[in-house]
Amino acid sequence: MRILVTNDDGVFTEGLWTLVNELRNISQVTVVAPDREQSAVGTAVTLWRPLRIREMKPIAPEVATYAVEGTPSDSVILALGKLVKNRVDLVISGINQGLNLGDDVHISGTVGAALQGYLHGFPALAISTARGNGLHLDTAAKLTARLVKKIASDSLPKDIFLNVNVPNRPLDEIGMVQVTRLARESHINTVEESENGKSRYYWLVRQQLSKTKDRKTDVWAIEQGNISITPLSTELSSKSSSSGLGNLCPGLLQEL
Ligand code: MN
Hints:
Layout: E1 2-6, H1 14-23, E2 28-34, E3 53-56, E4 64-68, H2 72-83, E5 90-97, H3 109-119, E6 124-129, H4 137-154, E7 161-166, E8 177-179, E9 189-195, E10 200-206, H5 218-223, E11 227-232
Helix pairs in contact: 1-4, 2-3
The structure holds manganese (II) ion.
Manganese (II) ion binds at residues 8-9, 39, 96, 98, 109-110.
């Protein structure tokens, strides 16, 4: 198995290297990741300036490592288009230090990078863990290695990629593994206003994740101390609401 590893926290972060050190025991790993923090940039790609790639001294033995002056999606596009090309069997984004649940996947750079792998036709997954005291990154790393072995033997369905979230606790304290769907909850962003004497400025502040009663969702699974695996697809066109548009279109081309 040849694995491309990326993330949105930056190439130097502990989450990425905990994962790489676990994966390099069972696979050939290449790291191509942003050279700095790029959390919450979502699916952004850089089209308005050139991108630099810096080959780094391997941080782990035999792991070719590249730092990209761009977004997580840029990193995956450069990796698959130039650095590793088709010599990849799986794209993994993470381990993100912070959960990516519910509506938050739309702004997640971690999920954005996995999406880019999927759009290029590769099996892909995003892996995130909850922040907290005594970060158990090893739990998410070990789980990912087990997932990789399963994907190597069973393969993923072609029409999905995976969003995996792991509680911040030791592996033997995990409740269960749950296949979920995205909750319609997210961190609600609020605006805080400040002033430094000269000018006024604003912070977008994320609040506590809202609770859910829906047991099939990723938010619920994590609240129970379970691992959440959500299959994601790119089918954004809505089937359910199109019938409700029946009155919208007639007459649009005529003056009303
Ligand atoms: Mn991040």
